[in-house]
Protein backbone atom coordinates (compact mmCIF):
# COMPACT_ATOMS: atom_id res chain seq x y z
CA UNK A 1 0.00 0.00 0.00
CA UNK A 2 1.36 3.42 -0.97
CA UNK A 3 0.73 6.94 0.30
CA UNK A 4 1.70 10.32 -1.13
CA UNK A 5 2.22 13.22 1.29
CA UNK A 6 1.90 16.73 -0.16
CA UNK A 7 4.62 18.54 1.79
CA UNK A 8 5.55 21.49 -0.40
CA UNK A 9 3.49 24.38 0.99
CA UNK A 10 5.01 27.69 2.08
CA UNK A 11 3.03 28.11 5.35
CA UNK A 12 2.82 31.89 4.99
CA UNK A 13 0.32 32.26 7.85
CA UNK A 14 2.78 30.60 10.24
CA UNK A 15 5.60 33.03 9.59
CA UNK A 16 8.02 33.76 11.17
CA UNK A 17 8.24 30.19 12.49
CA UNK A 18 7.83 28.76 8.97
CA UNK A 19 10.74 30.87 7.69
CA UNK A 20 13.03 28.19 9.11
CA UNK A 21 10.93 24.99 8.97
CA UNK A 22 8.18 23.51 6.77
CA UNK A 23 4.75 22.92 8.28
CA UNK A 24 5.31 19.17 8.25
CA UNK A 25 8.12 19.62 10.81
CA UNK A 26 6.17 21.77 13.27
CA UNK A 27 6.21 19.83 16.55
CA UNK A 28 2.98 18.68 18.14
CA UNK A 29 3.64 17.90 21.81
CA UNK A 30 7.33 17.62 20.91
CA UNK A 31 6.94 15.25 17.95
CA UNK A 32 7.03 16.56 14.35
CA UNK A 33 3.71 16.51 12.51
CA UNK A 34 5.29 14.36 9.80
CA UNK A 35 6.20 11.72 12.37
CA UNK A 36 2.59 11.61 13.61
CA UNK A 37 1.54 11.06 9.98
CA UNK A 38 4.13 8.33 9.40
CA UNK A 39 3.01 6.59 12.58
CA UNK A 40 -0.64 6.60 11.51
CA UNK A 41 0.13 5.35 8.00
CA UNK A 42 2.35 2.54 9.26
CA UNK A 43 -0.33 1.48 11.74
CA UNK A 44 -2.68 1.09 8.75
CA UNK A 45 -0.18 -1.16 6.90
CA UNK A 46 1.12 1.43 4.45
CA UNK A 47 4.56 0.21 3.43
CA UNK A 48 5.72 2.94 1.04
CA UNK A 49 5.49 6.73 1.36
CA UNK A 50 6.28 9.28 -1.33
CA UNK A 51 6.97 12.83 -0.18
CA UNK A 52 5.99 15.39 -2.81
CA UNK A 53 7.98 18.48 -1.95
CA UNK A 54 10.62 20.98 -3.03
CA UNK A 55 14.39 20.63 -3.10
CA UNK A 56 14.82 22.87 -0.04
CA UNK A 57 12.21 21.07 2.05
CA UNK A 58 13.65 17.68 1.07
CA UNK A 59 16.95 18.70 2.66
CA UNK A 60 15.18 19.80 5.85
CA UNK A 61 13.15 16.58 6.06
CA UNK A 62 16.26 14.44 5.68
CA UNK A 63 18.11 16.45 8.30
CA UNK A 64 15.20 15.96 10.73
CA UNK A 65 15.71 12.17 10.65
CA UNK A 66 12.08 11.26 11.22
CA UNK A 67 11.62 7.57 12.17
CA UNK A 68 10.35 5.62 9.16
CA UNK A 69 8.31 3.03 11.10
CA UNK A 70 9.45 0.31 8.70
CA UNK A 71 8.19 2.10 5.58
CA UNK A 72 10.14 2.81 2.40
CA UNK A 73 10.48 6.56 1.80
CA UNK A 74 10.86 8.16 -1.66
CA UNK A 75 10.81 11.76 -2.87
CA UNK A 76 9.06 13.42 -5.80
CA UNK A 77 10.29 16.99 -6.29
CA UNK A 78 8.50 19.99 -7.75
CA UNK A 79 10.42 21.71 -10.55
CA UNK A 80 12.59 24.57 -9.30
CA UNK A 81 10.63 27.85 -9.13
CA UNK A 82 7.48 26.14 -10.46
CA UNK A 83 5.14 24.84 -7.75
CA UNK A 84 2.57 22.41 -9.13
CA UNK A 85 -0.32 23.04 -6.74
CA UNK A 86 -2.18 20.15 -5.10
CA UNK A 87 -2.83 18.18 -8.30
CA UNK A 88 0.39 18.55 -10.27
CA UNK A 89 2.56 16.71 -7.69
CA UNK A 90 0.27 13.67 -7.92
CA UNK A 91 0.80 13.46 -11.68
CA UNK A 92 4.54 14.02 -11.26
CA UNK A 93 4.73 11.06 -8.87
CA UNK A 94 2.80 8.79 -11.27
CA UNK A 95 5.76 6.52 -12.01
CA UNK A 96 6.52 6.09 -8.30
CA UNK A 97 2.86 5.43 -7.45
CA UNK A 98 2.14 3.09 -10.36
CA UNK A 99 -1.20 1.91 -11.73
CA UNK A 100 -1.67 -1.33 -9.85
CA UNK A 101 -4.00 -0.30 -7.02
CA UNK A 102 -5.62 2.65 -5.22
CA UNK A 103 -3.35 4.84 -3.10
CA UNK A 104 -3.63 7.41 -0.32
CA UNK A 105 -2.87 11.12 -0.47
CA UNK A 106 -2.62 13.38 2.57
CA UNK A 107 -1.75 17.03 2.99
CA UNK A 108 1.45 17.55 4.95
CA UNK A 109 -0.13 20.19 7.20
CA UNK A 110 -3.02 18.05 8.45
CA UNK A 111 -3.21 16.16 11.74
CA UNK A 112 -5.88 13.47 11.55
CA UNK A 113 -6.44 10.28 13.52
CA UNK A 114 -8.02 8.62 10.49
CA UNK A 115 -8.51 4.89 9.88
CA UNK A 116 -6.86 4.91 6.45
CA UNK A 117 -7.73 1.25 5.88
CA UNK A 118 -11.45 2.04 6.25
CA UNK A 119 -11.14 4.89 3.76
CA UNK A 120 -9.53 2.59 1.20
CA UNK A 121 -12.14 -0.09 1.85
CA UNK A 122 -15.01 2.34 1.10
CA UNK A 123 -13.15 3.64 -1.94
CA UNK A 124 -12.74 0.14 -3.38
CA UNK A 125 -16.33 -0.83 -2.59
CA UNK A 126 -17.68 2.20 -4.49
CA UNK A 127 -15.20 1.81 -7.38
CA UNK A 128 -14.61 5.55 -7.04
CA UNK A 129 -12.04 7.64 -8.85
CA UNK A 130 -11.58 9.65 -5.65
CA UNK A 131 -12.81 9.38 -2.07
CA UNK A 132 -12.41 12.41 0.18
CA UNK A 133 -12.22 12.20 3.96
CA UNK A 134 -14.82 14.69 5.24
CA UNK A 135 -14.95 16.38 8.63
CA UNK A 136 -17.68 18.51 10.25
CA UNK A 137 -16.75 22.06 11.26
CA UNK A 138 -18.68 25.08 12.47
CA UNK A 139 -17.41 27.43 9.74
CA UNK A 140 -16.71 25.67 6.42
CA UNK A 141 -15.77 28.82 4.46
CA UNK A 142 -12.01 28.24 4.82
CA UNK A 143 -12.20 24.82 3.16
CA UNK A 144 -13.56 22.80 0.30
CA UNK A 145 -17.15 21.81 1.10
CA UNK A 146 -19.06 18.71 0.00
CA UNK A 147 -22.77 18.01 -0.39
CA UNK A 148 -23.08 14.33 0.45
CA UNK A 149 -25.89 12.31 -1.10
CA UNK A 150 -27.02 8.71 -0.75
CA UNK A 151 -24.50 5.89 -0.76
CA UNK A 152 -21.67 8.25 0.24
CA UNK A 153 -21.64 9.88 -3.20
CA UNK A 154 -20.60 13.55 -3.23
CA UNK A 155 -23.13 15.46 -5.34
CA UNK A 156 -21.37 18.84 -5.26
CA UNK A 157 -17.92 20.03 -4.25
CA UNK A 158 -17.21 23.76 -3.82
CA UNK A 159 -13.84 25.21 -2.81
CA UNK A 160 -14.03 27.85 -0.06
CA UNK A 161 -17.59 29.10 -0.57
CA UNK A 162 -18.95 32.03 1.45
CA UNK A 163 -20.39 30.66 4.66
CA UNK A 164 -23.96 31.45 3.65
CA UNK A 165 -23.53 29.56 0.35
CA UNK A 166 -21.89 26.43 1.74
CA UNK A 167 -23.98 23.35 0.88
CA UNK A 168 -23.11 21.66 4.20
CA UNK A 169 -20.63 21.80 7.07
CA UNK A 170 -18.71 18.76 5.76
CA UNK A 171 -15.27 19.94 4.69
CA UNK A 172 -12.37 18.39 2.82
CA UNK A 173 -10.06 17.07 5.56
CA UNK A 174 -7.05 16.88 3.22
CA UNK A 175 -6.92 13.07 3.09
CA UNK A 176 -7.92 11.11 -0.03
CA UNK A 177 -8.04 7.63 -1.51
CA UNK A 178 -7.46 7.80 -5.26
CA UNK A 179 -7.74 5.33 -8.11
CA UNK A 180 -4.96 5.36 -10.73
CA UNK A 181 -7.67 6.70 -13.06
CA UNK A 182 -7.07 10.08 -11.37
CA UNK A 183 -3.99 10.51 -13.57
CA UNK A 184 -6.29 10.93 -16.59
CA UNK A 185 -7.66 14.14 -15.04
CA UNK A 186 -4.28 15.80 -14.37
CA UNK A 187 -2.12 17.16 -17.23
CA UNK A 188 1.59 16.56 -17.04
CA UNK A 189 3.94 19.25 -15.64
CA UNK A 190 1.16 21.78 -15.05
CA UNK A 191 0.03 23.55 -11.91
CA UNK A 192 -3.39 22.20 -10.97
CA UNK A 193 -5.75 22.39 -8.00
CA UNK A 194 -7.47 19.12 -7.09
CA UNK A 195 -10.04 21.10 -5.18
CA UNK A 196 -10.96 23.57 -7.93
CA UNK A 197 -10.16 21.70 -11.15
CA UNK A 198 -10.69 17.99 -10.49
CA UNK A 199 -13.09 17.29 -7.61
CA UNK A 200 -16.01 19.36 -9.02
CA UNK A 201 -15.69 17.49 -12.34
CA UNK A 202 -15.66 14.11 -10.61
CA UNK A 203 -18.72 15.10 -8.56
CA UNK A 204 -20.63 15.95 -11.75
CA UNK A 205 -19.72 12.56 -13.20
CA UNK A 206 -20.78 10.66 -10.07
CA UNK A 207 -17.25 9.38 -9.40
CA UNK A 208 -16.48 11.29 -6.20
CA UNK A 209 -17.30 9.79 -2.78
CA UNK A 210 -16.96 10.88 0.82
CA UNK A 211 -15.89 9.20 4.05
CA UNK A 212 -17.21 11.09 7.08
CA UNK A 213 -14.70 11.26 9.92
CA UNK A 214 -15.56 12.64 13.39
CA UNK A 215 -12.26 12.05 15.21
CA UNK A 216 -9.46 14.42 16.13
CA UNK A 217 -8.50 16.60 13.16
CA UNK A 218 -6.94 19.96 12.40
CA UNK A 219 -5.21 21.86 9.63
CA UNK A 220 -2.33 23.65 11.38
CA UNK A 221 -2.32 26.47 8.81
CA UNK A 222 -2.94 29.24 11.36
CA UNK A 223 -1.21 29.89 14.72
CA UNK A 224 -4.42 29.44 16.70
CA UNK A 225 -4.98 26.06 15.00
CA UNK A 226 -1.43 25.01 15.85
CA UNK A 227 -1.92 25.91 19.50
CA UNK A 228 -5.30 24.17 19.56
CA UNK A 229 -4.01 20.81 18.30
CA UNK A 230 -1.26 20.91 20.92
CA UNK A 231 -3.91 21.69 23.51
CA UNK A 232 -6.09 18.78 22.34
CA UNK A 233 -3.19 16.32 22.37
CA UNK A 234 -2.03 17.44 25.81
CA UNK A 235 -5.32 16.27 27.27
CA UNK A 236 -4.46 12.67 26.36
CA UNK A 237 -0.91 12.65 27.80
CA UNK A 238 0.26 11.16 31.07
CA UNK A 239 2.34 13.17 33.54
CA UNK A 240 5.68 14.24 32.05
CA UNK A 241 8.91 12.50 33.04
CA UNK A 242 12.60 13.34 32.78
CA UNK A 243 12.57 17.08 33.47
CA UNK A 244 14.43 18.73 36.34
CA UNK A 245 12.61 21.20 38.57
CA UNK A 246 13.98 22.71 41.76
CA UNK A 247 12.01 22.94 44.98
CA UNK A 248 8.88 25.08 44.93
CA UNK A 249 8.47 24.99 41.13
CA UNK A 250 4.92 24.08 40.11
CA UNK A 251 3.71 22.06 37.11
CA UNK A 252 0.02 22.58 36.29
CA UNK A 253 -1.17 19.73 34.11
CA UNK A 254 -1.61 19.13 31.29
CA UNK A 255 1.91 19.88 30.06
CA UNK A 256 4.50 18.15 27.86
CA UNK A 257 8.16 18.50 28.82
CA UNK A 258 10.85 17.06 26.57
CA UNK A 259 14.28 15.79 27.60
CA UNK A 260 16.72 18.03 29.47
CA UNK A 261 14.11 20.65 30.40
CA UNK A 262 15.03 22.59 33.54
CA UNK A 263 12.64 24.71 35.62
CA UNK A 264 13.79 27.19 38.26
CA UNK A 265 12.50 27.91 41.76
CA UNK A 266 9.01 29.33 42.24
CA UNK A 267 8.25 29.04 38.53
CA UNK A 268 4.83 27.89 37.34
CA UNK A 269 4.54 25.98 34.05
CA UNK A 270 1.11 25.13 32.63
CA UNK A 271 -1.60 24.38 32.07
CA UNK A 272 -1.62 23.52 28.35
CA UNK A 273 2.07 24.18 27.84
CA UNK A 274 4.71 22.39 25.75
CA UNK A 275 8.44 22.82 26.39
CA UNK A 276 10.85 21.34 23.83
CA UNK A 277 14.14 19.59 24.44
CA UNK A 278 16.71 21.56 26.40
CA UNK A 279 14.41 24.46 27.30
CA UNK A 280 15.76 26.29 30.36
CA UNK A 281 13.24 28.14 32.54
CA UNK A 282 14.60 30.53 35.16
CA UNK A 283 13.25 31.47 38.58
CA UNK A 284 9.77 32.94 39.15
CA UNK A 285 8.75 32.43 35.53
CA UNK A 286 5.11 31.95 34.48
CA UNK A 287 4.31 30.08 31.24
CA UNK A 288 0.79 29.03 30.30
CA UNK A 289 -1.06 27.89 27.15
CA UNK A 290 2.09 28.21 25.05
CA UNK A 291 4.48 26.16 22.93
CA UNK A 292 8.22 26.68 23.39
CA UNK A 293 10.54 25.00 20.88
CA UNK A 294 13.90 23.38 21.79
CA UNK A 295 17.01 25.01 23.26
CA UNK A 296 15.25 28.22 24.29
CA UNK A 297 16.17 30.07 27.49
CA UNK A 298 13.54 31.99 29.47
CA UNK A 299 15.12 34.06 32.21
CA UNK A 300 13.87 35.06 35.66
CA UNK A 301 10.50 36.69 36.39
CA UNK A 302 9.24 36.49 32.81
CA UNK A 303 5.61 35.72 31.92
CA UNK A 304 4.41 34.11 28.68
CA UNK A 305 0.75 33.44 27.88
CA UNK A 306 -0.79 32.02 24.70
CA UNK A 307 2.38 32.39 22.61
CA UNK A 308 4.58 30.32 20.31
CA UNK A 309 8.31 30.68 20.94
CA UNK A 310 10.81 29.44 18.36
CA UNK A 311 13.98 27.41 18.69
CA UNK A 312 17.14 28.80 20.27
CA UNK A 313 15.40 31.95 21.54
CA UNK A 314 16.64 33.95 24.51
CA UNK A 315 13.96 35.74 26.53
CA UNK A 316 15.39 38.15 29.10
CA UNK A 317 14.40 38.90 32.67
CA UNK A 318 11.04 40.46 33.58
CA UNK A 319 9.74 40.14 30.02
CA UNK A 320 6.00 39.98 29.30
CA UNK A 321 4.84 38.17 26.15
CA UNK A 322 1.15 38.36 25.32
CA UNK A 323 -1.40 36.15 23.63
CA UNK A 324 -0.89 35.44 19.94
CA UNK A 325 2.78 36.43 19.88
CA UNK A 326 5.17 34.38 17.71
CA UNK A 327 8.94 34.58 18.01
CA UNK A 328 11.06 33.15 15.19
CA UNK A 329 14.13 31.01 15.79
CA UNK A 330 17.15 32.60 17.51
CA UNK A 331 15.33 35.79 18.50
CA UNK A 332 16.62 37.71 21.51
CA UNK A 333 14.27 39.70 23.76
CA UNK A 334 16.11 42.05 26.14
CA UNK A 335 15.30 42.49 29.84
CA UNK A 336 12.14 44.38 30.86
CA UNK A 337 10.55 44.29 27.39
CA UNK A 338 6.78 43.91 26.93
CA UNK A 339 5.31 42.43 23.74
CA UNK A 340 1.61 43.16 23.30
CA UNK A 341 -0.88 40.66 21.90
CA UNK A 342 -0.22 39.59 18.31
CA UNK A 343 3.41 40.75 17.99
CA UNK A 344 5.58 38.59 15.71
CA UNK A 345 9.37 38.73 15.52
CA UNK A 346 11.37 37.46 12.54
CA UNK A 347 14.27 35.00 13.06
CA UNK A 348 17.52 36.22 14.64
CA UNK A 349 16.15 39.68 15.49
CA UNK A 350 16.82 41.45 18.79
CA UNK A 351 14.04 43.40 20.51
CA UNK A 352 15.34 46.07 22.88
CA UNK A 353 12.19 48.07 23.71
CA UNK A 354 8.48 47.58 24.34
CA UNK A 355 6.20 46.74 21.40
CA UNK A 356 2.71 47.78 22.48
CA UNK A 357 0.74 47.26 19.25
CA UNK A 358 0.38 44.13 17.13
CA UNK A 359 2.96 44.17 14.32
CA UNK A 360 5.81 42.19 12.79
CA UNK A 361 9.39 43.04 13.77
CA UNK A 362 11.59 42.46 10.70
Question: Nutshell version of this structure?
Answer:
By secondary structure, the chain is of the alpha/beta class.
Look up the CATH topology of the largest domain: Spore Coat Polysaccharide Biosynthesis Protein SpsA, Chain A
**Principal-axes shape call:** elongated
Q: Note the main sheet.
A: 7 strands, mixed
User: Helix fraction?
Assistant: 10-25%
Please identify, by name, the CATH architecture of the largest domain: Alpha-Beta Complex
How many domain units?
2
Total number of helices: 7
| Terminal-residue CA separation | 45 Å
SS-derived structural category: alpha/beta
Number of extended strands: 33
In terms of per-residue confidence, which ranges show pLDDT below 50 for 5 or more consecutive residues? none
> What is the H level of CATH, i.e. the homologous superfamily of the largest domain?
Spore Coat Polysaccharide Biosynthesis Protein SpsA, Chain A
Strand order of the largest sheet: 5-4-1-6-11-8-12
Would you state the CATH class of the largest domain? Alpha Beta
Radius of gyration: 22 Å
- Report the portion of residues in β strands: 25-35%
Mean pLDDT comes to 90
